Amino acid sequence: MKPKLNFEWLHACSGCEISMLNWGEQLLDLFDQVEIVHFPLLMDHKYGGQLGEGAPLSLPEADIGLVSGGVAHQEHLQVLQEMRKQCRTLIALGTCATHGGIPAMRNQWSTADTLHTVFTAGTVDKEISPSSAPAFLDRVYSIDEKVRVDVSLPGCPPQPQLIGAVIKALVNKDAFQLPQKSVCETCPTIREGKKKMAPVQRFLHNADYDRDQPVSEMQCLLEQGLVCMGPVTAGGCGGKDTPLCLQARVPCRGCYGPVQPGGNQLLDMMNALASNGIDHRALVDRKSLLRFSGAHGLLKPARKKN
Amino acid sequence: MSDNTMSGAVMVVGGGISGMQAALDLADLGFLVYLVEKTGAIGGAMPQYNKVFPTNDCSMCIIAPKLVECGRHPNITIMTLSQVVDISGQAGDFTIRVRKYPRYVDTSKCIACGQCSAQCPKSVDDSFNSNIAKRKAIYIKYPQAVPLKYQIDPEACLRINQPGACGVCAEICPPGAINFDDQEHDHELRVGAVVMALGFQTFDPSKAKVWGHGIYPNVITSLQFERYLSPNGPTDGILTRPSDGEPVKKIAFLQCIGSRDKNRCNNEYCSSVCCMYAIKEAVMAKEVNPELEVSIFHMDMRTSGKEFDRYYERARSEYGVKFIRSRIHGVEPKGTKGDLRLHYISPQGKQIEEIVDLVVLSVGLETPDSMVKLAETIGIHMTPDRFASISAFMPVHTSRKGIFTCGAFNGPRDIPQSVIGGSAAAASVSSLLASARNTMTKTTPPSIELDVRLQEPRIGVFVCHCGTNIAGVIDVEELTAYAKTLPQVVHVARNLFTCAQDTQDLIVQQIRDNGLNRIVVAACTPRTHEPLFRKTLKSAGINEYLFEMANIRNQNAWVHNQEPETATRKAKDLVKMAVVKVATQTALKPLRIPITPSALIIGGGVAGMTAALNLAKQEFHIHLVEKTSQLGGNALHLFQTWNGEHVPRFLKELSEEVLNNPNIEVFYNSTVVEVAGHVGNFNTTIKTGTNRKQTIEHGATIITTGAKRYIPEEFEYGKIPKVVASIEFDKLHMHNETRVANGKSFVFIQCVGSRNKERPYCSKSCCTHSIQSAIKLKKEVPSRQIYILYREIRTYGQRERIYNQARELGIIFINYELHGPPKISREDTGVLVEVWDHVLHRPLEIKADMVILAAATLASPEAVELANMFKLPLNADGFFQEAHAKLRPMDFNVDGIFVAGLAHYPKPLEESISQALAAAAKAGRLLARKEIALEPNTALVDPERCDGCGLCIDVCPYLTIHLVTYQDDDGSVKKSVTINQALCKGCGICQGTCPKRGITISGFTYNQIEAQIDAALCTELTPEASL
Amino acid sequence: MAQVIHIHPVTRIEGHASIAIHLDDVGRVSDARVEIAALRGFEQFVIGRPAEEIPRIVSRICGICPWMHHLAAVKAIDGCFGVTPTPAGHRLRELCQVLAHIHDKILHFFFLAAPDFVLGPDSDYSVRNIMGMVRKDPELAARVVRMRQLGQMMLERFAGKAIHPVAGVVGGFAKPMSNEERQELQRDAALLLDFASFALDYAKDKVFGRFQEEMQSLGAITTGFLGAVDAQGNLQLYDGLLRLMHPNGKSVDFPASDYELHLSEHVEPWSTAKMVYAKSWREGFSLDPAAPKGIYRVNTLARLNVCDRIATPRAQAELEAFREQFGRPAQGTLLYHWARLIELVYACERTLELLADDAITDSAIRNPATPQAGRGIGHVEAPRGTLIHDYTTDDNGCITKANLIVGTTHNIAPMNLSVHQAASSLICDGEFDEEMLNRIEMAVRAYDP
Amino acid sequence: MNREQKIIAFCCNWCSYAAADLAGISRLQYPASIRIIRVMCSGMVHPEMVMHALAQGAAGVMIIGCHLGECHYIKGNEMALARAEVITDTLEDLGYASEQFQLTWVSSAEPERLVEAFRNMCGRLAVLQSEQSADHIM
């Protein structure tokens, strides 16, 4: 019997799924090794049976469950709980699932405020909010806030090889090791300490580098004064190679979430800057340093001050 | 005398800062030290001060670690309430009789709980608080006192004065430490040398009635003012008028009370410190209340020390302290409300009356009569000013060989000079007794330690009752029962006094019986008791670091004594916090690094040679690097010291002694080009005269690179040949060159290049120098007209005598201001000097045959490069910046490197020699250890987490963190940081920076602290999310 | 008895959707709705962000076409800050955009849509998917997987990230293209063009041929169209004028910045997805299947309908053949698939065209920008249709207001009509089966929502 | 709600921890909600520790170091000061009340100052709590 696999997406963008497809031909091996029983992007299994005759939002049992996306409304929560119930091993795939991801940026506002803004934005012909929309939760949750998660595989998107390796290891019941270190681990840029670091600048000009030289000849972007979230962000995006953003010569924005489980990218980054004597208040819009990890109650609507 | 008769013990008499420094240095240099203190606790004068100048550090805060260090040092025996009665014998072999007066409290029993004092019915004036507050008859001198043991004042105690009376302290003392039958005892001790750090007392202004001290309540001394300002003083730092408790609005400081005064007292000398402390007190008062009007009435502001002039200037310009050059001769009452009236003559010559509501008398320093008598008894010479008589060339040697002296007993001086003196005395003792080093000191044998790495934690918790101190508030039984429920706790016991010696044996037994491998003691504070319990762990064969204290007394029972239930709950938390912390504690071993027993001394001037010779006599090897082809440095230009000692002769003898010492290797024409290594093991490369590079291994470094003189650009220097700098003048004078020989009128101009905008510091020795030259000129030909144009005459200390002498000889002193400097022009064959006369209030023209410019001393330009190589800081004026202006005046924050002489700041020869000896003491203290045992609570890099992001590199204050690149198993290149353990002090700034817990401080790891937080908040880690 | 048939979720599409088909008492379709769950609040949470960061945030609107959002945002922010990208920066952006179209089209056609045709709408749900395709034709499947991956890897190799890109920056592009990179991309693009041609031939032969009737009829509705063209009327993906074509074939061209004059958004109480309609037709909005109002379509078929021609030869030839067979505008809903493969060919050809120009390796890739108050409207033609990002910034260059019209939004109303049409034609007596429901889903799939 | 309010106070070994000991010797009384954690230097405290304590339910967190210029480790307290700004900013950013955190300097000889700091902290937390519960009722 091949192990069965469920793959659900919740408050997600499908980037995680595409990343998995970017695994390439090894994907075909995976198709061989597991039996995919539920995967809305690729196959036609429906909740509650093909004709809707079963219990609503029911899912098949599976050995491995992958969930991408966070939890934003009641239906996500129900699907997630069903996944947890049906899957022996549950993988939180992608930063939305592990830390809320970009959609959790909306946790800085109440759901009502967000709905109001969205449905009055732009060229809407009349101001109404939909009545039969799914019941939104008060905020966007990562899935580990709602159910027990066995494996957290962050990334926006997670690196295909890593997704593959984890699934393979689970299929073969092998041990596996997720990256423990930050983006800096595989970043080959020249680092000399932050003493000479320029004041933080917005990314309005390109980094300083010689186009004919490899990334390993470029000065650390943070040391160049560009806020690079590498040091506070979980690594692995480039596999063993240069982190992807650095390949594009742009600073990391933290898409793998905090390097430290339970870490706070905003606080860690500000602390790193302040500790090195850099005016952290020069940074425009600190909160967006939590743009990938606003779940776990980190991003909240501003406190009302009396 | 053969070496084996030398004693390896030293007696230091006086437990003030100078004596403490001497004791600590000597103890670390390998000598057993008896520290004899006449009061009940060491510390001397410093604990009484609120802040210290010019750093404005809290005085108590900076001295407290030294107190504790003295108290804990295994080779320092503190003898309190003790006085030297007699010294016999000779250098290397003295016998000293010490009289120990009764304390009436058994120090081995007293736990300093303070219940006795609280109950004592008798209050008397508290001299520690300068009699502005009361203390009890049973008391501690001050809360941080070392030893922290109560004492009974026999004059005040009801019981001692009347047997059968009172005795309440004995009744309530929990450990029963009171002994009314205590007696005085004489002890005979054999020592090889003695250091006299007898200290000073402040002048008592009430003797002369003119200032109204003791008559008008609102006239107080500067020391009383310190106590008023001190937050831990009797008024909690709140300043009000003593007469009525009303807020103070206007203060006048009167300088030179009991100093520079031959009329009202016999203190001719300048007390050296009063100008600065008055400014400091003024600034402190202004800081609390900027509205306050503060005036300082003075003759000269003698702020000649490092950073002092800046401090003075800030007080004036930033704080608005008024400085009035006028001596006030009396204080009168104004009305009946306590106001005070002062009369003075303004600089413009006007009579002015000022009404103030507080007068602070800046009282001078003097040697107490008892100390003068002691000096007589033991036969050491004193100066007419009643200070120990010393030579500028041997600034810590008394007239009796083997007896050394330091601190204010050598003449009035500030804290850094006293610290330097203490160290200098230690260095001098050490070279005298080098052969007896380590013959008397104790070493603890290494113990065999249980390896607990693979064991599960088995935690033992010992709960202390501390008599009723803890048990009277906290339900210790409930606490004990609770401790038993904590994870990994296998043994819990209660003790009446956990620190008692018999309890230590009990704990050792229980550790063995129960196979405990980690210990928590819930008692008082680790700051005082951790060393004791660590020792206990050691003797039980457990690594001493597998230990944690729960502070349930000082930080619980005592501070919540009205809330027993809450305090008990808190005690549970504290014990739990300690348990979870100790559970993940790992055994730590101090890293031991062997030390290369040699020193590199850079600069072959007097400071460098002095340090070299002292260390060589201490039997260390010395590499002395001199950039020129000659030893002697700036002293080659000097003729005499302030008290007339002949410098060239001294210099010749010193150089010869250096060159003849087999332990000293001199490199001429050499400079340092590269520096590597760290304390204990430096590798310094020098380039020698032949352009050859040579690498020297050494354990310590002393920088004595001197200074250079200012080439004046003002006063037509270099344009008019009769305008010369003072050093040039000395040469001309020595050879009686015609310009000098025929000269009838001489003008000295002071502060040339000093104390201006560009160099806002005082070159310190020029006033004395010019006056000496002037006196010599005058004495040679009394008809000569000699003028000294000055801004402030800074003949500090006993130098005041020559200032007086000069005036008596008819030398004319004319004050000028920075904004109105004298004008110089050529006139006929001479020089015309125009200056504003402040006494006559009119311009004055002087026809001079010679004008002598007292040119500034400048930092050596090479200092910059040297500072870069050794990673040392320079101050704004380019002089080396010591680690701490007060207590570490020759150290750097980089261990193993010291500074002395002009490289540190301009100073006279005597002070350079002192500092050089002090630097030698520090270097010797390091080299004598043979190896450095580094504090094991240092930063550790977790290779599983560190990825070399580099955020921590520049946050480290000790520059110990470096990036490294390595290849991991699969060949990919990785980055990480490494810590130079030898330099790490374990402050944890790196831990506070790292976003990934890649670097932790053992003993205070992130995880341990987090566990403590969780334990404190009693959160069980139950994931709410699980289904 | 009245009942509601739920298709939940609609599968093999690129997002979350469900269909509700309401049957009346006699089992006839009374109403059919597609609900697209799209609300994530981007319009809200971009507010306050420094505008230059927006392209890296809004890419997360869609993980399949992140480049489209990334670049539409970059173009809009250029506008806010009043900066024009350098020529090389402009070229590099377009190159990435057309490359991103390639993987998208392969994904949609082969992974999502093809199983319906190759394996048949009636095949069992458990095999009617890419895994079934692999079993049926492993060689083809492997090539498809490889080629789609290649398209993505070309982007990743050159621009760092393929999914949620980062290389587009206000004022231009973050890294220049080296000659080695250019040569490598040229080699790979040639492979893709071969595959695109093969794919179109394969589809015409194995797919469209077998479903000639459905191509025209399934979910067929009559609507207007919106797409982009250049001044000469050529098909444009990255830039150009918008052309809105009335069902009657008449068109109006306008710059994207005028979108508000022509388009408006409408909210139905039953859906969190906003619907866009042609305001400039002045007929309002209605979803009434009998008399729809204001409805137009976007995406591949729309673009091929509105453009006069395609500037690359192979695609132009295919366009001509397509028009010959289906006329202009072609209304058949399943023709979207065909049009998609023609666009695939175009995207490959355009890639090669861009790479052939030496200017693409120029070093001047970015003009410096200064934050300022302004408004910028960025438009690109995304695989799923006309994509408009509209931002306003404050003096500090931070966003104060955002409006995003994503490709699928335009198509939601037509999709509803198509589903209604398909359901009505398939279900007439309350009886339904899996195949029928899948056919209804096929009508949705064609739009690639 | 009945849960005991606790305040975590990180005290540096050289100054504030010593002052806390001295407060005991002087029998100064302060609220029992204070839980002191001894650290070698205020610069050792990672802001995440503060955040962690608050997340775990601490009513407030204090870092108490030596006076500026008096750090045993040259500049650890300056570091704490820089981080304190980060912490207060972040607390506001994250919807906490920045009043829940306090950085204070206390020398080893200033137990009164320490006790006053403790009392002030408790006082302002009480105000904060009453404000919040008032908000709640509204």
Characterize the structure shown.
The complex is a heterotetramer of chains A (306), B (1027), C (449) and D (138). Chain A is α/β, with parallel strands linked by helices. Chain A has eight helices and seven strands. Chain A has helices spanning 15-21, 26-33, 74-86, 95-99, 111-120, 160-171, 244-247, 265-275; strands spanning 4-9, 35-38, 62-68, 71-73, 87-93, 136-141, 151-153. In chain A, the strands form two sheets. Chain A has a five-stranded parallel sheet, sandwiched between helices. In chain A, strands 4-6 form a two-stranded antiparallel ribbon. The model of chain A has no long low-confidence stretch (mean pLDDT 91). Chain B is α/β, with parallel strands linked by helices. In chain B, helix 6 runs parallel beside helix 7 (274-288) and helix 10 packs across helix 16 (606-617). The model of chain B is unreliable at 1019-1027 (pLDDT under 50). By secondary structure, chain C is of the alpha+beta class. Chain C has 14 helices and 14 strands. In chain C, the strands form five sheets. In chain C, strands 8-7-6-11 form a four-stranded mixed sheet. A three-stranded antiparallel sheet of chain C has the order 1-2-3, covered by helices on one side. In chain C, strands 12-13-14 form a three-stranded antiparallel sheet. In chain C, helix 4 packs antiparallel against helix 12 (335-356). The two termini of chain C are 32 Å apart. With 138 residues, chain D is of the alpha/beta class. Chain D has one domain: Rossmann fold. Chain D starts with 6 loop residues before the first strand and ends with a helix. The chains are: A alpha/beta (306), B alpha/beta (1027), C alpha+beta (449), D alpha/beta (138). Chain A binds chain B through residues 81, 84-85, 144-148, 180-182, 184-186, 188, 191-195, 220, 223, 230-232, 235, 240, 258-260, 263, 268-269, 271-272, 275-277, and chain B through 944-951, 953-955, 963, 970, 972-975, 989, 992-993, 995-997, 1023, 1025-1027.
- Spatial shape of chain D: globular
CATH superfamily of the largest domain in chain B: FAD/NAD(P)-binding domain
**Tally of helical runs of chain B:** 25
Counting helices, strands and paired strands, the structural category of chain D is alpha/beta
Of all chain pairs, the largest interface belongs to: A-C, 83 and 105 residues
- Please give the CATH class of the largest domain in chain B: Alpha Beta
Integer average pLDDT of chain B: 92
Structural class label of chain B: alpha/beta
- Characterize the largest beta sheet of chain D: strand count, sense, and whether it forms a barrel: 4 strands, parallel
Report low-confidence residues of chain D grouped into runs of 5 or more.
Answer: none
Summarize the helix and strand pattern of chain D as letters: EHEHEHEH
